[in-house]
Amino acid sequence: MNYQHIRVVPASAYVGAEIGGVDLAKPLKDEALGEIRRAFGEYGVVFFRDQHLSPEQHIAVAERFGPIDINRFFAHVPGYPIIAEVRKEPEQERNIGGGWHTDHSYDEVPALGSMLYAREVPQTGGDTLFASMYAAYDALSDGMKVTLEGLRACHSSRHVFGAEAAARRGDLNGRIGNPELATQDAVHPVVIRHPETGRKALYVNPGFTLRFEGWTDEESRPLLDYLYRHAVKPEFTCRFRWREGSLALWDNRSTWHFAVNDYHGERRLLHRITIQGTSLH
Ligand code: SIN
Fold first, then answer.
1. Tens digits of per-residue pLDDT, 219-229?
2. For residue 241, which of 11, 49, 196, 248 sits 20 to 30 Å off, Cα-Cα?
3. 195-242, pLDDT tens digit by residue?
4. Ligand 1 midpoint to CA 258 (Å)
5. What angle do CA 116, 98, 64 make, to 5 degrees?
């Protein structure tokens, strides 16, 4: 696709692109915003380098993509309740987001996307992996596509953020909290038609999906496990190496992500703003 106002360099065959020629600290011109949206639709996650954003500027750029969806469970940046803090201190063991998932699939109206901005990153490690759920869907056999069409799946926040999970959370407590608010359950189609691109994407994820609607956990497990293995084949993924000032904007409807926890003894601090989406039914 042709871009006139931004530079776009794909990060892999199916997912991710680095965008150049944009200073997000300045108000985005409509033409550039339109092209960033187009790249976001095409690649599922877009990356920007060397940005210098105050929290106010981070909020302002996120709001160009839609209203903010406040996360109930993450600790927030002091003074900024709408910015979630993704933090791991040198002495902490567990990281936030250290498993394949897509944000907020447990909500009736799941988030459009998340905008993560790196303030402090380890010397090495702490990368984030992304996987394309368009590519995962497209590569399924016709028979599997027919099987999945019309199926719906139950998603929940309870087993991840609720009271029982809090008891097992270890040093994530304090960074993740409010277990009493983990009451969200939602049912979504297993294959969604993306509200903006119109493309079909697989919409189950290992973090929040419990089972297929009307199926038992035991019945659902083998098929979910197959889909989870299939969806993260290396060719459907890309890996983003953060630097201070990097910003990633990912589409929660068409991608999964995974924060790699391989930087023990170092600090990693990022600020996340989540953007509201629309119903997937
Ligand atoms: C997240 O899952 O939102 C965090 C991703 C990351 O820290 O790389």
1. 999 999 999 99
2. 196
3. 999 999 999 999 999 999 999 999 999 999 999 999 999 999 999 999
4. 7
5. 20
Rg of the Cα atoms in the chain = 18
Is 280 part of a structural domain of the chain? Answer: no
For the record, the structure tokens of 132 come out as: 């394309």
Query: Which amino acid, one-letter code, is at 62?
Result: A
Total domains in the chain come to 1
Q: Is residue 92 part of a domain?
A: yes
Confirm if 245 and 49 have CB atoms less than 8 A apart: yes
272 is catalytic: yes
- Give a yes or no: residue 2 inside a domain: no
The answer to whether 247 and 115 are in contact (CB under 8 A) is yes
Examine residue 1 and state whether it is found in any structural domain, yes or no.
no
Question: Containing domain of residue 262, as a range?
Answer: 7-275
The answer to whether 155 is a known catalytic residue is: no
Name the closest-CA residue to atom 2, ligand 1: 97
| Catalytic site includes residue 107 | no
- CA 157, distance to chain mean position in Å, is 15
Is the CB of 126 within 6 Å of ligand 1? no
